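Hey L., structure's done. Input below.
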Amino acid sequence: MNEKEIKALISLLDDPDKGIFQEIEHKLITCGPEVIPLLESSWESSFDPLSQSRIENIIHKIQFDQVKNDLQLWKLNNQEDLLEGLLIINRYQYPNLNEDQVYYQLAELRRNAWYNLMYDMSPLEQVKLLNNIIFREFGLSGNTSNYHDPQNSFIHKVLESKKGNPISLACIYALVAEKLDIPVYGVNLPKHFVLAFMDSQDPEKVAFYINVFNRGQIMREEDIFAFLRQLNLPLSDEYTLPCDNLSIIKRVLRNLIAAYEHIDNAEKRMDIELLLRLLED
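Output:
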């Protein structure tokens, strides 16, 4: 479909006949992201609230289809890239974001740590350095005043506001550690996401845990076991050993579902539930 045909379809979006509108909507959505600039231009020049509302909904549906496609491709081909998974979730709320800024900020954190990193440092010294760079110098912290804010799950907003929930803080910490070859990985602990620092002598064994929501506090195995006993949960590998990136992205989505439920936004909650189902199928 050429530009003239697309513009002709857009001009009919104020048609009161619901059947005709649905046919036009379907045709525009199937055109994909390429029609968004034309839709935005029409929205800006329109004075009709109905047309504007319909254009906004069509743009959202096109962008949401793109997020669904990106997430399915990530699951199939790119699960080792945690940052890409987080950015796809970010695109749900911020489809027009320049993602270079996220890469730049993470690279800056990595660079600042690298300047001070000595490879004869002990694991505890390495964590102390990361804590200093990420929490003291950069200023990242847990969002204790607005724990259920959906913004806590979007990585660029966490880097911008410097506040997040346990899993978003853990992801940023782990991404920086990964670039420095420091063996830190996410642990899917119920009710509280933490990180594990793996033993250099035995890569299958956890040396200790890191509570990023408490500014990188060190936790021992017995702390994790006591926490699980409090929740009446078994001391299983599922809760005590590193999880894969797919599990992390699923948990980010579950947090978002709970956040949208908390603020009573049913439409966005259903969108995110659909994204989660795509990963669970």
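The beta strands are 141-142, 163-164, 184-187, 194-198, 206-211, 217-219. The first helix runs from residue 3 to 10.

-- N.
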